[in-house]
Amino acid sequence: MITRINRERLYLTLMAILTFIVRLIPSRNFTLAGNDAYIHHDIVMRMVHEGPGIMGHDITSLMGLKAYSYPPLFHLMGYGLYLLFHSELVFFLTCPILGTVTVLVIYKVALEIFEREDVALLSAFLFSMVPSFVTRTSVFIPESMGLLLTSGILYMLVKYIKTVPGYPDIDKFELRGFINLFRGDLSYILGGLTLFIIYVFTHRGWVFLLIALLLLGVTFLTPSFRKRPVEIGLIFLLIGAGVIGFINFAARFQSVPVTILGFPKWMGALQLILGIYGAFMLIRSKNPTHRFLIIWTAAFMIIGTYSFRFRDPYAAIPLSLMAGYAFSEVKDRLYRPDHLKSYFLMKRDITPLLRTGVFAVLLLMPVAQGAAIAYTSVITPTTQQNAAFRWINDKTPADAVFLSKIDDSYPLIGNTHRRDVLLWKTVYEGFMGNPPSLKENTVTRDEVSAIFQSSIPSEVHYLIERNNISYIYLSKATHMNGIGLQVPVDPHFKTCFVSGDVSVYKYIKKPELKSNYSEIAVNGEYGKVVEYIEKFWNGYSYSEVGATAYNDPAEDLEFGNLFKGSYESNAMIAAIYLDMGDSTGNRDLTSRGEYLMEWLSYKQMDNGSFPGGMPPAEYTLTTMQTIYPLMAIRSSKSQEIVDRGLNFVDSQIRGNEINVEPFWKSRALFESEYLQLKTESQVAGMYPSGKQGIVYSVIKKQNSDGSWSSQPYENIEILKGLTLYYLSTNDSRVLDSIKRGSEWLNYHQRPDGSFQGDGEENVYCLAHYADAALVYSVAGDEKSLEKTIAFTEKRGVKNDPTPLKSFLTFIWDMKIIYGEDRAMQLATEIAGT
């Protein structure tokens, strides 16, 4: 038979095992989880490789007494464990073990306070699953060790209070009786002080503990307030001022207001409900530890609306203790004979089963919430981010300084061990003994913010050089404004890595290519065309305008107009201007065309690709679209660009398949049937050599009605590729496919020339209509061709999603259909509408 003591030990053991398992969830893939874990892992590994001497020697910094200093004891522990085991498992197991031990100590604290095994078990169980406590003891951060020390000091404190004369009646501490608080067993005070000394060299959480100690003093003063309200009230004000002073001292603690929903989310829904209920039950208790729990919880939850760090998880400690007391009461009432009397189902009394079921649900609620938070609240790097980190490790100097957004800085430093401007200032300088002041840190934050938001190139260049930045790391969201719009065009930034999620750019202090701000004015037959194109000049190149971006890469490449590089448009302009310059003798046009050639060469990536989309990625199609207009230019620079680009395109061909993006990257985010078909047909059309098998594989996927898709624009772009291929090869099988496809297009074109779906799901570009006209021209459908051209003349380019690219594509297609003169005439008409 299992005795009561053995049963309690069994429950405690099961709770410890469950606590440990839940804390392994964030590291389920054996990757560091959470931002701070990357930093502390990096610091430990720097100590492993460079020695513990990298720590600062200033005592105030070692104790965390300066705003941006970091106590080192946790890192020394990690350093010692790593040297002992030589395994990365140290970073995944240490904190779950610390968290589990903390729960066991909280069990002892609850047992001392309430002197009941069931209350102690339930209190420890509820605290073990507090979501904020779970996350802070699942990942490799100093707070996990700090919370263990907090619970240990709390245990010593409770043991001490129980030895003071007058305990457990708080009224015995009234007025002069308050002195009894200092007459307990000093051995517990010495034990607590020993732990506290360790604490100050471990984590800045000791600030919260000192505030709790001030509240303990308030607790023992409350009986005196009835007799001397004025004098004791002044003491309360002084203690309150001390609390505020501590908060101001801990100025780095985030002062972000939190919503009411954050309390059940991070303190635990059941813990919050039962904790408040427990406070209500204990409100009349004369036990000073009970009253202390109520005051501690209330104060930290109130301050927690100002700074979540007080709430998460320090307010949860006393809350869980009171919640365990209330949970025990709920359990006792649930199993009382006068509650939930007999309930029969199929002549069997299922009351015991119902009671157990209700109690089991109550137990499962905090487990489910704690496990869910452990699973979902931790962000790990994406496949594209990991690819960027590998590139940085392989291709950048170890002393390179990076610029990135603060949320990107943690995994960047943790995975590459490079410096980041902001985190190096706020973390590393302090750990190494030279913590910046609040003002210095604020200046750095403001300068980083200005770099990301400024639209003035000279300001960005100055601040980058001032902070000795050598590389810029941009995640998806940071491409949408400020520097994210500048790096694709500015010669000061060399594109090094793009993945459609993350981009890395190298800052060039003195680029060989200078900006070209000269204006171009052309009269005569090309005047209107040049005038329209020049509207898109940004001082470095030509770029689209507008602010549309699509989550689907296929739609983004089709309709998106945020990517300022627009390399394919600049290549078309270079070819057009050089041709115009030759025919008119206008040196300004020739000079601009030659400049664009230099700019394209400068912006071409090392592997020969030209990225596209927003955020950018290395697409085979955008590379081919960029080098295609340059194939007709007879110059060494154009040939150099073309050769490098074709080498990249060739590397993306495997048999009868052309990859959408580089093979070494994940294809999951970018692959789509349309984007695959468009890439294969248009790359083969622009670069037909040896592509017959690829073209035939596209034709095989054509439906019996002549379509590949229900969207007209998708069929237009696939057919355009086949059209270009036919113009180069005269392949009759391809012509047959084009004719069947043109019939489908004609059927889905309205009498006014617009296509079905235009303006409903998407606003089609002028480029789609120009490409459709090209298809009709090759298919021999003159009637549809004339209808489409008439619609383009009426529609114009003014409200086009991608006006520059559409205008240039229109010129290019019209040249194929009608020749140079007629194309320019139509382009002149289009530019004015």
Automatic annotation (TrEMBL):
<keyword id="KW-0472">Membrane</keyword>
<feature type="transmembrane region" description="Helical">
    <location>
        <begin position="181"/>
        <end position="200"/>
    </location>
</feature>
<comment type="similarity">
    <text>Belongs to the STT3 family.</text>
</comment>
<feature type="transmembrane region" description="Helical">
    <location>
        <begin position="9"/>
        <end position="26"/>
    </location>
</feature>
<comment type="pathway">
    <text>Protein modification; protein glycosylation.</text>
</comment>
<dbReference type="GO" id="GO:0046872">
    <property type="term" value="F:metal ion binding"/>
</dbReference>
<keyword id="KW-0328">Glycosyltransferase</keyword>
<feature type="transmembrane region" description="Helical">
    <location>
        <begin position="145"/>
        <end position="161"/>
    </location>
</feature>
<keyword id="KW-0808">Transferase</keyword>
<keyword id="KW-0464">Manganese</keyword>
<dbReference type="GO" id="GO:0004576">
    <property type="term" value="F:oligosaccharyl transferase activity"/>
</dbReference>
<keyword id="KW-0479">Metal-binding</keyword>
<feature type="transmembrane region" description="Helical">
    <location>
        <begin position="206"/>
        <end position="225"/>
    </location>
</feature>
<feature type="transmembrane region" description="Helical">
    <location>
        <begin position="232"/>
        <end position="251"/>
    </location>
</feature>
<feature type="domain" description="Glycosyltransferase RgtA/B/C/D-like">
    <location>
        <begin position="71"/>
        <end position="162"/>
    </location>
</feature>
<dbReference type="GO" id="GO:0005886">
    <property type="term" value="C:plasma membrane"/>
</dbReference>
<feature type="transmembrane region" description="Helical">
    <location>
        <begin position="119"/>
        <end position="139"/>
    </location>
</feature>
<dbReference type="InterPro" id="IPR003674">
    <property type="entry name" value="Oligo_trans_STT3"/>
</dbReference>
<feature type="transmembrane region" description="Helical">
    <location>
        <begin position="290"/>
        <end position="308"/>
    </location>
</feature>
<keyword id="KW-0460">Magnesium</keyword>
<feature type="transmembrane region" description="Helical">
    <location>
        <begin position="314"/>
        <end position="331"/>
    </location>
</feature>
<protein>
    <recommendedName>
        <fullName>dolichyl-phosphooligosaccharide-protein glycotransferase</fullName>
        <ecNumber>2.4.99.21</ecNumber>
    </recommendedName>
</protein>
<feature type="transmembrane region" description="Helical">
    <location>
        <begin position="79"/>
        <end position="107"/>
    </location>
</feature>
<keyword id="KW-0812">Transmembrane</keyword>
<feature type="transmembrane region" description="Helical">
    <location>
        <begin position="263"/>
        <end position="283"/>
    </location>
</feature>
<dbReference type="InterPro" id="IPR008930">
    <property type="entry name" value="Terpenoid_cyclase/PrenylTrfase"/>
</dbReference>
<dbReference type="InterPro" id="IPR038731">
    <property type="entry name" value="RgtA/B/C-like"/>
</dbReference>
<dbReference type="Pfam" id="PF13231">
    <property type="entry name" value="PMT_2"/>
</dbReference>
<keyword id="KW-1133">Transmembrane helix</keyword>
<feature type="transmembrane region" description="Helical">
    <location>
        <begin position="352"/>
        <end position="375"/>
    </location>
</feature>
